[in-house]
Amino acid sequence: MNSGEARGDLTITAITCVKDEGPFLLEWIAYHRLIGVTDFLIYSNDCSDGTAELLDALAVKGGLTHLPNPAKGRNYQMEALKHAKESGRAARSDWVWIADVDEFLNIHVGDHTIPALIAACGAAQAISVNFQFFANDGVEAFEDKPVIAQFSRSHNPDIWCGEMAIEVKTLVRKDFPLKYYGAHRPFARGDARPTWVDGSGRAVPHRFLVAANPRRIRRFPARGAREFATLNHYALRSLDSYLVKNDRGDVNRENRAFDDRYWRERNDPAWRDDSIRRMLPRLEALLAEMKSDPEIGALHAQAVARHRARCAELITQPGYQKMRAQLLGAPMLPPQEEELLRDLGIVA
Fold first, then answer.
1. Which residues have C-beta within 8 Å of that of residue 4, sequence separation ≥ 6?
2. How far is CA 198 from CA 92, 117, 169, 223, in A?
3. Beta strands 178-181; 186-188: pairing state
4. Burial class (CB in 10 A: 0-12, 13-18, 19+), 46
5. What pLDDT is recorded for position 4?
6. Cβ atoms 209, 193 nearer than 8 A
7. Confidence of residue 2 (pLDDT cuts 50, 70, 90)
């Protein structure tokens, strides 16, 4: 199960929350093992596709802890992160990485592992890495093959929806003066000023450091921030999988409907970037090894079958037929850019 992993001397825990992500779990876990994650802390809630059973089986193999999400209301992600901090589970590692199962840390330095990124960033206590949203690429049907092999087009990484700034996710060192974890960034205690850098090893802007921006998650300069790493975010995947995602809601806001605007903001194919595919040979080898375990292989196949069945069921419903047709016909230009071009008289 562990061959090919890049661990080094650091302990690195990845924390995530999931709901019906069964078909995508093995790829995300295998990829993160390859880039240096040593432990996983995964919270699940209300799963119906075999996600929980697959996680339980993986936990028995070691290096992964699966817990029910402790949230009493709807704020699943923040409640889980609060539990991770208060239980001390996160603090046992040298570094903590908080990300979703559709997010892949794409490291451009050294051997493309988290330890290499940490080394490139020097004495940082936190490293914030910019998002890069990957478009649907015209993929309609779900396929059981690596997501990172299927989608290679994104927006210009310096510009997203008319802004020169974008969201981040953050690696956090054990000695960070932590008040609490946010989904995108940690928040420091009192007047503490930790050493905090971006994906190029540069000090983050002061207003970001002290959380002074009203929109502090997204107000992070994009240009020049990805020399060492980017965060590939496959928020759409295939059209059929997107319909399932819309049907189930997400881990943070139950029953949230992702409308046309969400799709269009993340379906800009202006830029080609297949750099993450350098990881494919090792990823496919590790995936094959994981699936060779009879129990793991069977549970993965079951999750895939349930996902396909749900896809097939949804597209028999008039509402989802209409949504599918709407998304197929949606412009590939983000709404904000289309509005700007209209204001400039470039488009009608």
1. 33, 34, 282, 285, 286
2. 24, 11, 10, 11
3. antiparallel
4. middle
5. 37
6. yes
7. very low
Tell me how far apart the alpha carbons of residues 113 and 36 are, in angstroms, rounded to a whole number: 6
3-state secondary structure 214-270: CCCCCCCECCCCCCCEEEEECCCCCHHHHHHHHHHECCCCECCCCCHHHHHHCCCCC
Residues 77 and 57: their CA atoms lie apart, in Å, by 23
Most confident of 143-147, 219-223, 314-318: 143-147
**Is the pTM above the cut of 0.85?**
yes
Of residues 346 and 50, more confidence is placed in: 50
The residue among 69, 88, 63, 89 whose CA lies nearest residue 21 is 69
Cα-Cα end-to-end distance for the chain? 56
Residue 88 backbone zone (phi > 0: left; psi -120 to 50: alpha; other: beta): left
Distance in angstroms (rounded) separating the CA atoms of residues 278 and 83: 36
Cβ burial, residue 119 (10 Å; 0-12/13-18/19+): middle
Angle (CA) 319 302 304, round 5° = 50
Res 345 pLDDT > 80: no
Strand stretches in 99-239, DSSP E: 103-107, 126-133, 153-154, 168-173, 178-181, 186-188, 196-198, 229-233
> What is the rounded CA–CA span in Å between residue 186 and residue 208?
11
Distance CA 192, CA 174 (A): 15
pLDDT per residue as tens digits for the range 53-85:
999 999 999 999 999 999 887 789 999 999 999
CA-to-CA dists, residue 288 to 10, 58, 180, 242, angstroms = 26, 15, 38, 26
